[in-house]
Every structure is written in C-alpha cells, then in structure tokens.
Amino acid sequence: MCRWLAYSGSPVLIEDLLYKPTHSLIDQSLHSRLGAETTNGDGFGIGWYGDPSRPPAVFHSIEPAWNERNLRELAGHISSSLVFAHVRASTGGAIQQTNCHPFRHGSWLWMHNGFIGDFERTKRDLRLAVDPSLYPEIEGTTDTETFFYLALTLGLEDDPPAAVARAVGVIEAVGRRHGVEHPIQMTVATTNGEDIWAFRYSSEQDSRSLYFSTAVDTLRQLYPDNPLFQQLDVETRLIVSEPLGDLPGAWNAVPESTYGIVQPGADEIHPFTPVAPA
Amino acid sequence: MCRWLAYSGSPVLIEDLLYKPTHSLIDQSLHSRLGAETTNGDGFGIGWYGDPSRPPAVFHSIEPAWNERNLRELAGHISSSLVFAHVRASTGGAIQQTNCHPFRHGSWLWMHNGFIGDFERTKRDLRLAVDPSLYPEIEGTTDTETFFYLALTLGLEDDPPAAVARAVGVIEAVGRRHGVEHPIQMTVATTNGEDIWAFRYSSEQDSRSLYFSTAVDTLRQLYPDNPLFQQLDVETRLIVSEPLGDLPGAWNAVPESTYGIVQPGADEIHPFTPVAPA
Amino acid sequence: MCRWLAYSGSPVLIEDLLYKPTHSLIDQSLHSRLGAETTNGDGFGIGWYGDPSRPPAVFHSIEPAWNERNLRELAGHISSSLVFAHVRASTGGAIQQTNCHPFRHGSWLWMHNGFIGDFERTKRDLRLAVDPSLYPEIEGTTDTETFFYLALTLGLEDDPPAAVARAVGVIEAVGRRHGVEHPIQMTVATTNGEDIWAFRYSSEQDSRSLYFSTAVDTLRQLYPDNPLFQQLDVETRLIVSEPLGDLPGAWNAVPESTYGIVQPGADEIHPFTPVAPA
Amino acid sequence: MCRWLAYSGSPVLIEDLLYKPTHSLIDQSLHSRLGAETTNGDGFGIGWYGDPSRPPAVFHSIEPAWNERNLRELAGHISSSLVFAHVRASTGGAIQQTNCHPFRHGSWLWMHNGFIGDFERTKRDLRLAVDPSLYPEIEGTTDTETFFYLALTLGLEDDPPAAVARAVGVIEAVGRRHGVEHPIQMTVATTNGEDIWAFRYSSEQDSRSLYFSTAVDTLRQLYPDNPLFQQLDVETRLIVSEPLGDLPGAWNAVPESTYGIVQPGADEIHPFTPVAPA
Q1: Is the pLDDT of residue C230 over 80?
Q2: E strand or H helix at A252
Q3: Which residues contact A125 (CB under 8 A, 6 or more apart)?
Q4: Contact B73/C57, CB-based, under 8 Å?
Q5: Whole-number Å distance between alpha carbons of B17 and B75
Q6: Which residue in B197, D87, D119, D156 has its CB near the most CB atoms, within 10 A?
Q7: Which residues pair with A4 in a beta bridge?
Q8: DSSP class of residue B214?
Q9: DSSP label at C135?
Q10: B146 to chain C nearest CA, in Å?
Q11: Cα angle vertex D78, ends D76, D81, to 5°?
C-alpha cells in the first residue's frame, strides 16, 4: 500500500536518505518493486527530530513525492539523526495532509504500511476504544491514525511493544466481531525520538515486507574499502519497506510476526504476539 | 466565519450567481462586510442539481475562491435550478476538501455558517450520537459535518425542521453538559433537491446574519423596468449570508430564531425552537 | 510521457469516457501499458464544448487523476459531444495548472504527448517565433504550449495541417541549429469545436503510439449484438494514445508520419511532412 | 500588492520572525494595514541561508500563509541568520509555486512588492532583454521574476545598485515606448547571502511603504530593560513592507527613491536613480 523508511544514526542530510540511494524511497514512490502497488503517489510525509526541547517536525504533502520541489529543497537543507519518511498509496481514503504519515503525538511519531481490514465497518468501535482525552486529536480518516491513538490509549508511551500488542489485539477482536477474516496487515514503525520500534505482523501471517540494514561494524568487515561505512556511526540503522539498493549482505528481512528495537547499544528482535482484550 | 448562498429558481449559469452580482459571494470571499471575519479564504465549495436520476454534484477546493480558475471555468459552463455555494473561514480546523461545504448524503446537501461551541470537547459525544450506519461516512473534522450527520440520524430526510430542532437540542444538551456557555451559532441551509430549508439560530440569541430575496412578483412591481425581474421564474429565491447588492427592497433579514422553507407555491417562515433530547 | 484521448460524437457523459472503459484513461494514469512512462501522475486536464456561444471549458489539476474527487464529480455531471482529456507525466517542468493540457486559445484546444528535444536550449528562439500579439498568452513553461502558440502564429485557425507542418518545420530547424539530434517527438490533437486533427510524427521516425476507433457502422457489423454500437451516432470517433480495451477490430494504429481529420462525413488520413521555414 | 520581510542578524528561529511579532507577516497576510490590498492570500514563500556551501533554500506554497501547517512546522524547526519572507496578493497572474517569491538564482534571492505597469504589453520586450543564457531559468509568469533576470543580466552579481538602476531604466524605457504612464512600482530586496540591498522607488514617485528597524545599539539605549535587545547581535536588522508592531522608535520609513545596504559594519542609505539604457 505504502512504502516507508526509518533512520537512526549519524546526523544525515535528508536528501542523502531520500534521494541518493539507488532504489531510494523517492524512486519507490514511482516504481516500487515489492509493494502491493507499484505507485505510491497519494501524498507523502517526513518527520524528523532536531532541537530536543521541541516535538519532532512533520512535513506532509498531498502531491506525489517524486516531483515535489519543496521536499527536495527541505531535504537538501535539513539534517537529523532520526528520520521517518513515508510515501502513500491510498486504498480509498481522501488525499489530504491529515491522512499523511508519519502521525505525531507529543514527541512520538508513527507510520504504517498495510491496513485495518474493512475499516469502514470497524471504525466506529475502534475510535470508541480511543481514550476520550485523545479522541479530539484525531484529524484524518485513516485506519493508521486510529491505530496510533489506540496504541497511545493502551500505553504506547510506557511500553511500546506491549501497547502495540494490545492495540492489535483490540483490532483483531473488533474485526472478528464484525466478521472480518483478516483484521490487520501491518508493518509499523514508532519512535519517541530515542529508540525506534518496528513491527511486522498480519492476521493472515503473510505480512508486507520489512528489512533492516546490517550493523555498521559488520558492513565495515564486508566492505573494508567502502568509505561510507567507515564514516557512519556504529549505531546507524535503517529500517525499510524494501531495500534501498542491491548491496549483498546489507539488508536483512525482518521475520514474520516479530518486532525489532533500534536503541543505544545492541539492537533487539523479538517475537510479536497480539494480546486479546480481557 | 463563512459566507454562503442558496439559490432556487429559473436555471441559472453559476457564473451569474457567483461572479456577476455587485457584492457577489466571490467578492465576499475577499471582502465580507457582515461576517465575523472579513476574509473567507480557507477553501470553498459548490453543490448543484442536474440530472434528476443522480445525486447532486459537489466541487470542493482548498484554494481561496477569489482566484480559483477551475471554479471560474465551471461556473461559466454549468447551469442549474438549485445551487448551494459556500466560502470558508476556518476557525482552526484543517484546510482540506473533506472540510469544505456543502456536505452531501444521498440527494441531500447541507451547509453552515457559525460553529459548535468548544467542539473539541464535545466532538466525541456528538459523533457517538450519530447512527452507526452513518458514522463511516464522516470524512472530515468539522463541527458542521457532524451536525449534518446528527440531523440525518434524527430524521432530516423525513422532517427537516423537526430533525434540525432535535439535533440542535442534542448539541445544546451535550455542550451544556461540558460547560459550554453558548453551544451553537448557526445559519444553516439544507435541501433535498426540491425544497430548501434555511435556519437562523444561536444559543445566545445573537445569530449570524441571514437574508432572503424578495419574491419576484413584488420585485417586478417595485422595478417594472428591470428586465431581469421580468425573465425570472416567479418561484426564484436566493438565501444569503449577506445581501449581494444594495437594491432597495430586494433583501429581507431572516428574524432571529426562525427558519424558512423555499418550495413550490408560497414560501414559509416559522419560529425555530430546539427540542431537547428526552 | 503522457496519455490523451479525443472524443467526438454522440453527447457522452465524461464519466463514461474517462472511467468506464476497461483500460480507461484514468487507469492509464496509474498503469500505462504503451507509454514511455507507466505512471502519468503529474496533473491532468480536460476540455469540453458545451454552449456553442462560449469557448470550450477547461479543467486543470496538479493532482494525479486516479484519485481526484472533483474530476469524478464533474465527470458524472457533464456531457459533451467533443471532449479532450490528458494525463501528464512531466519530463522535469513544474507541476502547475498552467502546464496542464489541453491548452486553449479562443475556441481551439490543443494537447500533446511527446516533447520538443532539448527545449531548454531552444525555448527562447521558439518563443521569439511566436507572434508578439499572442506572446502574452503563454502562461506556463511547457514545450507543448509554445508549440501551440507557434502553430497559431503560423495559421492554425485557417489551415491546421499546414500550420502544424510549418510549426514542426520551425521546431526542427531551430533544434538542428542548436545541435539537437531529434528535435520533436509528438502525437498532437487539436480542435476548433467542430473537427479534430490528430498528428503522429517524430524527427527520428519512431513516434509515440496513436490509435483511432473503428467507424461505428463497421463496429455494428462486427458486433451486431452490442447495444452500445447501435446507440452511438455513426460519426462517433475516439483517438487515443493507447487503446481503451482489447476489443478485436475496435482500434487501428495511426501510421507513422500521418495525420487524421475527424469531421462530419468521411474522416480522412493523410501523410504528414514538416515544412521547413523559408 | 504583497508584503515582505528581510532579516539579517543573530540566528533566529523563523517562527520568531514570522509568527511572534504583534503585527507579524502572517498577520499581514490576512490583515495588512498599509498594503494596496488588505489580504495577501495568493501564496507565499520563504528563503533562507544555512550551510554556506549550498545555495539558499526556498519554500514556496500556493496556499494562504495564515493557515499553512507546513510553514508553521518548518518555522518552528529552522533557524537562520538571513531570511526572506513574502506573502503574495496576485494582480491576476496564476497562483502557482513558480510565481511565488523569493526567486533564486545561484546564491541570490530576490523579492518584490509592486508591479511592472501593463506587463502583458511589455513582457515580450523585457524578456528579450534577458540574457539568452539566463532565459531558460525563467519558470513563472510574474513581472518580478523577469525583473530579477533583467537585473542579473545587467550585473546584479557584481554591483547590485547599479544593476537594479539599469534594470529599472530598461523597464521605464520599454514601458514608455508602449505608452505606459507609470512603468514601475517597487520595493525590492535582494541578497547574496552576505549583504541585503533594499530599494524603494516608483515611476510616479509615490512608492509602496518600506521600513527598516532601528539599529540594535540605539534600541538598547531606548529600551534598556528589554532583554530581547540585549541578546540581539548589534548587526541585526529587519526590513519590512510595514512595521511588525507599534514600538515607538523601532521603525523608520525608507525615504522615496532610495536604497539601503545591510552589511557588516555601518549600514548605508543612498538615493536611487534609474539609469536609462544607452
């Protein structure tokens, strides 16, 4: 449906992340190889962290990313050590800025590839499950935004994996109550500006693709002559819907029904199991 | 907040309605005289009826009306005998097509000038009062759209004045439960493609302005030499947020807390009183 | 680069033309089969003739056609017996309404698939060749618009095939003076609201595809049971960048270096040869 | 027609420049006090200098500035020591990004309030006066952009005041040849990223307003208790179409037919006289 990229590491010019790679996200907006749709032209968004005293910035546009001049300008002038970027292929929802990922709440960002099955039927129940204090913040009409606020309601800011497991549990329970066979299809990334949590899961156990980049120290051993890998901070990590190029050994598929944590020190990968509501 | 116009009568080129009058709606988008805001530049919309076998058409844009070339093109090529037009001044909500009036459901159109007081606080309760079967149709974030679906829930298609009275009753009850002093401020127009119902009301009894045009036969007597009035169908009627010109005798203020019906035969005007929920 | 469609015949709802066919132009905006680019998402435009006392209407948008709600609305409410429609894939020029086809001058429309080779280098000379009285009407930055005004300068309104032959002659002469190997690649359609002229030509003799629909009386013989063909006016004709479906016998390739005329009575097809400037 | 602001000095968050002042530029977009038009809602643009190895960034939008969310986001995250900002009121030209100020060429920015008189008639001659090597860079249709490229043609990068005097001389000569009574009305700002040159002039000697802020050391003496003035770099200077507030002593009108230079060390103000072409 969509394509996304999450970056954490050495401060990088957003241009180097979005435009420079061989099979960049901008290229994927026009010619995705692994996506359910080859074209992701229904708007895009980026989110990035700068001044730590402020919430992350977001830039949302309803234009296709491939020809958006403002994105190119900004990408050439903004550096960040934590960037989320997303190109959208709408499954019918309106093309409007409030439907563009990443979504933001306080210092958190959230983006998603996939869908909540038959969302038109389950939307009301899912929105009702959102905490009333958070409800007024929902601005758009996407399944993703409701999913985010559901996760926030269920503790995202305290324990992201547990909150996402509970939110998926609610989505599956509500979906099944409405007769939806496969209530969720998802790769999701979320961050608080420090760590990134990335999830790959689907009710049918046939999830959209997700890849993470090989650790920089391993890349240095594989490619001792590549100056880029010498420069990068060892903590640098990319998580992407599809690889940004074809460098052997550089990309690793995230297994079905797992989630990963990109954090200071060793990154982690764990099984992901939805938690049904009590 | 906004400015609107409802027209019923002889088929008219939309251009003649929107651009030709001295103080046209397009002029009001840039220089409103009577509005709470002088500029109504946060998008616009038109709705019109054509082929009776189809629902009305709507055209929504997030650009200011005064310089929108597509609107000018369409206005010069589309004629209709029932037209709604609206220029928006947002009170904070997102500028997106799904927030542009008129809103449509089946063969009905709805538009509004004013606001639901403190909507952020009452939004969830008001949306919950919308029938679950209608809930998924809500696409934007405006108070107006929720008001429309509330009225539909409460019988708009069967008895518009009663349904609007009930919807306003719910809005006032919910608002007061949340401590809102003046829960609603409104001039509203709605139509099924045959008749138009227009309401002027506010909880504080100090409503936004609303005018209706003098009956064509009276205008003919007042201005026997004006060829326009000779041509117009006697049933022709305009309802507007503010007069489109300064012709003496041509415009009549709608009284506080009343509603009017534009229909075949004699039009009517009645007192409007909200009906509190049981 | 782009995809276009020209229709002349029985009055048709634009929706039936743009959305209903199996491989419709809207479908081609997302998944072109024969185009140089598979995605034509850099805006679109339609032009149509209504009231004969007025110039044709044009509707231009910078959004991709596949998800444009206003286009869908208008298409469902506007009928015409002569329609031009175009989906754009920019080769670098700005995405703005003034770069969207069809272009209009007086009662004429003009649209193009292809490009003027190395236009950045030849632009000034080509614009200088435009009549000074027409020059101020050029609003955008496309090669196509300059081509149109060049053809107007060289007599389009009097003798379209001759004027286009002269304009292409100028483009080739100017291009070659600037060292451009293949100065033009084109399929072009133009109309005065009565007849349509369609051209297929390229300096390298390897032109973009162009098809015209089979004459309605032939289609009736081929498909005696198809009610659509019984209804259509015998003069009905479609010219398209690529076929709208796979119906055997329904589509005919326009030969290399030819132009066709769709007109009352028998349509014509002739060789096309550029005329070099004296 | 438009309103603009040029800032040079201590690095400032763009938000503090555009949104925080009492009568900020964003406020002027909706409610200008001194402008020829009270509403400047036909798009906007900002330009700023960051990494000195790169050209300045520009961000252009066709939406009104007052409700543009991306502008607010960016303004809250980008700091710069040299910023240009402009809100546009079109006098008829298309609302498109390529018509938004500031315009950029290499490391130069340029913005303008006013107009070239009867530009439709003089446009071709003025564009012809642009150097052929610069001509292809002209992307929009504004008088301002042509004026900029004319000034570049006439030496802007070497001697800005002389080049602008020559460009205005050409505009006046061409205008008068076409019978235009008052060929130019202008306040213009241009910068190379180091110094700012600001011009106030009109053929009729009745120019649009222009103000510069009082030197910081004088403001410190006037307002010894104002902490802002203690923090600001003494070189900080603002040039604006209209004052950003009502602080007595803070704003100074630029005299008719003069230009100022904001530069390291003492700023300068000089008479401005157009230089007629030989």
Answers
A1: yes
A2: strand A251-253
A3: A174, A177, A178
A4: yes
A5: 9
A6: D87
A7: A86
A8: P
A9: G
A10: 21
A11: 125
Instruction: Give the angle C128-C130-C134 at the CA atoms, nearest 5°.
Output: 125
pLDDT higher than 90, residue B139: yes
Rounded to an integer, what distance in angstroms lies between the CA atom of residue D27 and that of residue C167?
Answer: 50
Residue C128, classed as helix, strand or coil, is helix
Tokens of C240: 């398209």
What's CA A234's distance to the chain center, in Å?
Answer: 22
The two three-digit tokens of residue D16, written as one number = 């503090």
CB B256 within 8 A of CB B32: no
Q: Is the peptide bond before B227 cis (omega within 30 degrees of 0)?
A: no
State pLDDT tens for residues D26-85: 888 888 877 777 788 889 999 999 988 999 999 999 999 998 999 999 999 999 999 999
pLDDT, position D261: 96
CA distance C93 to chain A (A): 9
Neighbouring C-alpha atoms within 13 Å toward the C-beta of D165:
15
Min distance D96 CA to chain C CA atoms (Å): 6
Closest CA to A238 of A24, A6, A81: A6
Is the pLDDT at C182 greater than 70, yes or no? yes
Confidence at residue A37, expressed as pLDDT on a 0 to 100 scale: 74
- As a whole number, mean pLDDT of residues A248-254 equals 91
> Residue A137 and residue D73: Cα distance in Å, rounded?
17
Residues in chain A closer than 8 A to B104 (CB atoms): none
* Res B1: pLDDT: 59
The alpha-helical segments, DSSP class H, found in A32-157 are: 69-75, 119-128, 143-153
- How far is the alpha carbon of C63 from chain A, nearest alpha carbon, in Å? 7
Residue pointed to by tokens 């209209």 = D242
Residue B73 touches chain D, beta carbons under 8 Å:
no
Contacts of D63 in chain B (CB under 8 A): 62-63, 95
pLDDT of residue A1: 59
Task: Find the catalytic residue in C1, C2, C85, C189.
Answer: C2
* This prediction's pTM: 0.94
Q: Does D124 touch chain C (CB under 8 A)?
A: yes
**Contact list, D38 vs chain B (CB under 8 Å):** 31, 38-39
Dump pLDDT digits (tens) for A41-84: 889 999 999 988 999 999 999 999 998 999 999 999 999 999 99
Query: Which residues in chain B are closer than 8 Å to A141, comparing Cβ atoms?
Result: 98, 139-140
* Token pair 């030499």: residue: B225
Q: Does residue B253 sit at the D interface (CB-CB below 8 Å)?
A: no
Token pair belonging to C220: 């009736």
Give the model confidence (pLDDT) of C106-126 as tens digits.
999 999 999 999 999 999 999
- The enclosing H or E element of D50 equals none
Q: What pLDDT is attached to residue A230?
A: 84
Give CA torsion, residues C106, C112, C118, C121, to 10 deg: 0
Three-class SS state of B14: helix
pLDDT digits (tens, 9 = 90+) for D79-130: 999 999 999 988 778 999 999 999 999 999 999 999 999 999 999 999 999 9
The catalytically annotated residue of A2, A26, A156, A188 is: A2
Asked if C62 lies within 8 A of A63 by C-beta distance, the reply is yes
Q: Which DSSP letter does residue B48 get?
A: E
Q: Tokens in use for D112?
A: 């303008």
CA-based end-to-end distance of chain A: 32
Scanning every residue of chain C, which has its alpha carbon at the shortest distance from the alpha carbon of D132?
A: C124
Residues in chain B: 278
Q: Closest chain B residue to A138 measured between Cα atoms?
A: B141
> How far apart are alpha carbons C257 and C273 in whole angstroms?
7
- Give the integer Cα–Cα distance in Å for A134 and A145: 12
For residue D54, list chain A residues with Cβ-Cβ distance below 8 A.
Answer: 76-77
Candidates B31, B64, B69; nearest CB to D64 = B64
What type of residue is D162?
Answer: A
Q: How far apart are CA C62 and CA B240, in angstroms?
A: 32
- Tokens linked to B70: 């597509």
